[in-house]
Amino acid sequence: MSQNQKVFETYESEVRSYCRKFPTIFKTAKGSILTDVDGKDYIDFFCGAGSVNYGHNNDYIKNSVIEYLQNDGIVHSLDMFAESKANFIEYFQENILKPRGLDYKIMFPGPTGANSIESALKLARKVKKRNNIFALMGCFHGMTLGALSLTTDEAARKGAGVSLENCTHIPAPYMFPELDTIKYMDTILSDDHSGIDKPAALIVETTQAEGGIYALSDEWLQRAAELCKKHDMLFIIDEIQVGCARTGTFFAFERAGIKPDIFCMAKSIGGMGMPFALTLFKPELDIWSPGEHNGTFRGFQPAMVAAKAGLEFMLNNNIEAETRRKGAIVEECLKEGIAKSGLDLPYRGLGLIWGIDFAKYPAGTAKRASKACYERGLVIELAGREDCVLKLMPALTTDDETLKKGMAIIFDAIASLGL
């Protein structure tokens, strides 16, 4: 352990986690490459948990923020009017929402995804005057109490220290292929003996990321939207990790042709890893009283500058189409690599979020694979039940050569496990 690492071991809380999986001190980052204090490079297939879709220190976004700060642009403004905020809102409306036929009010709930989820839950309950929420098993929506009540990971829930209530968890459609989960929800909502309180909303991730990279089908999402209409519930989509072009369209729900009542954004909407979140909802739902939900950093203006620049970069560089093209490269590498390995490793995903499932092998195998990747210069995380899924999330700007090099490292690492 280096002297600098002792600082973390001595003074930082035991709650730290990622540094235990990737135990080096990172110093710089550019594009898809992380570099540590010893000058060793690592290809980044973690991508700040989906926060730096457009690459580390993206020049276009970074230069916009630097120019703003050098001109003494206001940094902290709560929810007062600011020029940079107006610029972001106008660009987002004119270039992202309106071309997609989306009419939504924009709320700035605070800088994190959990802030966005909490505000969505509060608004849904306020509008419908009901406490309960439907969420899917396998979901992850955040670590604050409201968001955590939805999240199903056992270890995360135990950390709450209090009972987590007002949520009914529905089996995700991939869990029991023989069970029509839409019909199941329809039945319990229609049956006055189901014993389940009618919810204010149903919340889903169109692709469960932490749940193990499960993309819900277009048909399921469409039927879920219709179910919500039938039973006077709001349909909330969590775009936090899989939005901002990660799945091949800017909004992950676009592929299903649906328009949720509320959707939540964070992570890469901040452009270059800036803390930033949005909650968007149909105009008729905007029944907030002034200040009814707030946060000190809901007006962090450098994030709004970075967010606008990120949207410009995304559109100017055709990132959605590039993500789909690169996703096909990853899929082909997975198909060929797993076939050559001779191992029983299901894989699934879309765009540039993919998972390799090690559930058929002893517990901890995916963790061993992640460690072997790290030792070979690739940072890659885990997901799914018992962390059995190797989770591929490269930056959307990763060049083809680096993408293929990262994939080669994965299969070299898997081969080293002796499965």
Brief characterization of the structure:
With 419 residues, this protein is α/β, with parallel strands linked by helices. The protein contains 14 helices and 17 strands. Strand 1 and strand 2 form a beta hairpin.
Structural write-up:
The model has no long low-confidence stretch (mean pLDDT about 95). It is globular and about 55 Å long. Helix content is about 40%, strand content about 15%. It contains 14 helices and 17 strands. It is of the alpha/beta class and about 425 residues long. A seven-stranded mixed beta sheet has the order 4-12-11-10-7-5-6. A four-stranded mixed beta sheet has the order 1-2-3-15. The protein has a four-stranded antiparallel beta sheet with strand order 13-14-17-16. A hairpin with a 5-residue loop joins β16 (about 380-385) and β17 (about 390). α5 (about 85-95) runs parallel beside α11, α12 (about 320-340) packs parallel to α14 (about 400-415) and α13 (about 365-375) packs across α14. It has helices at about 5-10, 20, 45-50, 60-70, 85-95, 115-130, 145-150, 155-160, 180-190, 220-230, 300-315, 320-340, 365-375, 400-415; strands at about 25-30, 35, 40-45, 105, 135, 165-170, 200-205, 205-210, 215, 235-240, 260-265, 280, 345-350, 355, 380, 380-385, 390.
